[in-house]
Design a protein that fits this description.
By secondary structure, this protein is α/β, with parallel strands linked by helices. The chain has two domains: 236 residues, Rossmann fold (3-Layer(aba) Sandwich), CATH 3.40.50.1100; 92 residues, 3-Layer(aba) Sandwich (Rossmann fold). It has 13 helices and ten strands. The strands form two sheets. It has a six-stranded mixed sheet with strand order 1-2-10-7-8-9, with helices on both faces. A four-stranded parallel sheet has the order 5-4-3-6, sandwiched between helices. Helix 3 runs parallel beside helix 4 and helix 10 crosses helix 11. The chain is globular and about 65 Å long. The structure holds ligand F0G. The site of ligand F0G has 21 residues, from helix 3, helix 7 and helix 11. This is Threonine synthase.
Length: 360
Amino acid sequence: DAFSGRGVWRYADALPFEEGVSVPEGDTPLHHVPRLESDVGVRSLRIKHEGMNPTGSFKDRGMTVGVQAARRLGVERLVCASTGNTSAALAAYGARAGMETLVLLPAGKVAAGKVAQASLHGARILEVDGNFDDCLDIVRELAERGEAYLLNSLNPFRLEGQKTIGFEILERFYEDEGRFPDRIVLPVGNAGNTAALYKAFRELVAAGALDRSEMPTLTGVQADGAAPMVEAIENDRDSVQRWTDVETRATAIRIGNPVNAPKALPGIRETGGTAVAVSDRKITDAQQSLAENGIGVEPASAASVAGLRKLRRQGVVDADEDVVCLTTGHLLKDPDAAVAAGNDPEPVPNDADAVLDHVV
Ligand code: F0G
């Protein structure tokens, strides 16, 4: 493949295959944000913008490996449940591999850009009268019956690909600063990325490339209306209790049953991390702050920055920390949220002088 050895596949030694179904993915920017950094009040702040992947979210890193596994296994039909981004990525990678793709979405709760992607890439979109967790229950049953190959983050091949987020962050940060970041803050839905980052750290420790004490502190952020992981951390529980009623404007993380919690909770604990919930209002504020720095993200992504702000104010995050916030999806994923949070268009006359009069 023309993309072997690039992006995600630069880390093929740490992946189960030599190459994958590739668009290509990975190699996303680690932005400096000096104004936001001083505003938040930490030694350094970087934004790892996963919205810059080919379908606009980190899911592509998982799919390049996961759909390759499906191809090797010779399965005929791919399936996922999704709050939107997984369905967009699976539709694109399934199309690239020439495979039939089904996606189950919670009706009316998926942002427009994501539905558009799944639709144009040719997935069959099955809208369920229920939330994401209900969709995942159905998909798991279809997979157990052997009717389709599941490509949610329960699929371990997905998490293998998503480990490369961690590799890239550590490698790039070290190149720039000569040290590893103290903390990685990320939005949490199913806790797949949290689990994948923790696995990446453990593999680096096992390879002697990272000292155990240097593992960045994993810090998860959820929306107030969908925060079962935060509840588990706050109550020091080993498992998560499912929330059946979930609501947030950050629809990507509108999830009440984080299926990777058993893999993610130990990662948060071992790295000395925590989990925090933020309001939709604070998520929108953070989305605007990132946009003011030229970085366009969807609401769920901005939760990372909102969570960092809250933890810094509470003194949980220290002023001398080096922090990386993960922004998981692109602004254009959810155009309605962007329009609601941004400036309104101003009608002006069709005349240069009148336009100038208007703007002064
Ligand atoms: N951010 C975005 C933009 C997402 O789309 C998701 C998950 C997450 C964060 C949470 O990541 O599950 O690894 O904790 N979206 C899934 C989907 C559920 O169907 O697109 P996680």
